[in-house]
């Protein structure tokens, strides 16, 4: 049965999609089309600061729900020349919120995208690693995953934010692990629960990035040195939050 792209929908954020440079983690600096979906299963209230009072640095974008049909999304991307950018090997960065909440519809969307435009976009997910990815993302669409697991300092209960079976899947499948560092206590937690974990997660050090917990250029400058020293001590990579350094508080509070 043919898919009806005038009826199939996704719940997207207020900014829907935008073209920029990846600001964090493994692909920092790479041209990317961010496709931002609404809804999240975590709050990250513990990350709140003067310049990021909601905790989550993209809360005001994804917290508003907008239902769009696949064809409306395709038209929006075409009008903004995002399809051209993706054809030129920009990353399709599927983010949120937590995008895997809508995984069933996302699989349909990518199938419809490929059918319509006759090429495979380069897909990278931004996920909090609490929901198990469907095997088709890697087997059929060659997607990569940039996880951002939430530590105790994010403020959510561990039973919601720490899912060992999902984390192990990501560790076993080469996902990047990008940690927001707020205090020195985070380092011990990462070592115990992600590197030397008795549940078999065991993330390789070369797949870990540390980045400062901050919501503005000012906060980034204040906190980056300490986080860089933590990264050096643990022999992992440091990630800036490039979008804050370049554009400062791009998402207004």
Task: Describe the model.
- The chain is an alpha/beta fold and 253 residues long.
- The chain has one domain: Aldolase class I (TIM Barrel, Alpha-Beta Barrel), CATH 3.20.20.70.
- The longest helix has 18 residues.
- It is globular, with a radius of gyration of 18 Å.
Query: Into which percent range does the helicity of residues fall?
Result: 25-40%
Percent of residues in beta strands? 15-25%
CA-based gyration radius: 18 Å
User: What is the name of the CATH superfamily?
Assistant: Aldolase class I
The CATH class name reads Alpha Beta
Number of domains: 1
Shape: globular
CATH architecture name: Alpha-Beta Barrel
Cα(first) to Cα(last) distance is: 45 Å
Number of strands: 9
Helix-strand sequence: EEHEHHEHEHEHHEHEHEH
Q: Which fold name fills CATH's third level, the topology?
A: TIM Barrel
Low-confidence parts: none
User: Main β-sheet, in a few words?
Assistant: 9 strands, mixed
* Helix-strand category: alpha/beta
Spatial strand sequence of the major β-sheet: 3-1-2-4-5-6-7-8-9
- The helix tally amounts to 10
Mean pLDDT metric: 91
């Amino acid at each position: 049965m043919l898919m009806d792209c005038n009826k199939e929908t996704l719940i997207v954020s207020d900014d829907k999609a935008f073209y920029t440079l990846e600001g964090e983690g493994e692909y920092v600096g790479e041209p990317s089309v961010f496709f931002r979906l609404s809804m999240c299963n975590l709050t990250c209230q513990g990350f709140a600061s003067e310049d990021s009072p909601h905790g989550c640095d993209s809360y005001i974008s994804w917290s508003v729900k907008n239902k769009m049909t696949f064809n409306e999304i395709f038209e929006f991307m075409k009008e903004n020349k995002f399809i051209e950018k993706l054809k030129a090997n920009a990353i399709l960065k599927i983010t949120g919120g937590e995008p895997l909440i809508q995984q069933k519809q996302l699989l349909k969307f990518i199938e419809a995208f490929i059918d319509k435009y006759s090429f495979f976009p380069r897909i990278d997910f931004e996920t909090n690693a609490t929901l198990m990815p469907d095997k088709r993302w890697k087997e059929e669409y060659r997607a990569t995953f940039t996880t951002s697991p939430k530590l105790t300092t994010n403020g959510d209960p561990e039973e919601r934010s720490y899912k060992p079976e999902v984390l192990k899947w990501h560790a076993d499948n080469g996902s990047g692990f990008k940690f927001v560092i707020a205090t020195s206590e985070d380092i011990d937690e990462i070592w115990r629960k992600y590197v030397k974990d008795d549940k078999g997660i065991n993330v390789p050090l070369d797949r870990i990035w540390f980045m400062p917990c901050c919501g503005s250029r000012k906060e980034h400058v204040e906190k980056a040195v300490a986080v860089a020293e933590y990264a050096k001590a643990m022999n992992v990579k440091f990630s800036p939050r490039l979008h804050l350094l370049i554009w400062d508080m791009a998402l207004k509070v």
